[in-house]
Amino acid sequence: MHGFVRDDQLRIIDELRAGCDFWLTVAIRVSYVDKTPSRLFQAGADLSIGVESGIWLRRLADARRGGFFEVFVPLDGGTDYANAEQELEKAKAELLGNNINAALLAARKALETVRKAWKTANIVRNVKRREAADQDPRPELKRTVPERFAFFAEDLFAGLSGALHKEEGTKGYEYSRAQAVTLIASTSGLVAQLAEERRLS
Fold first, then answer.
1. I need a surface site. Which of 5, 15, 92, 132 has the fewest CB within 10 A?
2. Nearest to residue 75, comparing CAs of 60, 66, 86, 65?
3. CB 86 within 8 Å of CB 107
4. pLDDT tens-digit readout, 51-84
5. How many helices (H) and strands (E) does the chain have?
6. 135: phi then psi, degrees, rounded to nearest 5
7. Which helix (H) or strand (E) holds 51?
């Protein structure tokens, strides 16, 4: 028996298994005509197949023509990051059409949701003030994990803004597709992190 699984389905399975062994269940349904006079008969069964993680990785590697790292953002209705997830979908669609500026604009809108939720601008401002008064030659090493992600989000926002507004340092520069992928994937990661926080809170 042979079947077909699309690339996007492979990636979803790989995300859901979270590095563990898993089971695939195949539902088989057969309809056929038999007897005289003719009658329609149906039969079915479920076939479960255990897949070890090592075997899965080898098969998945065989199916790939190139490496990828896809970020899945869980979406629950009515959440404060729902709009961000929709903007990421727009960014993905625009990138598929090679509309880089439109893709980056959608990513920046998605990132604004994260900045608002985490209050990253305030965090960065307060940390810079604290570090300016610190006598330690490397005060940035004292930043907490949330502070580090706040700086990352603000730097990412600046990168997206520079790509769109052609600021002094980015005048005359056209962002490549690979650079757009970097900015959009990074934004997706932060939105996914916000979604996980909401789920666990």
1. 132
2. 86
3. no
4. 888 777 777 766 655 555 567 776 666 678 888 9
5. 7, 2
6. -80, -10
7. strand 39-51
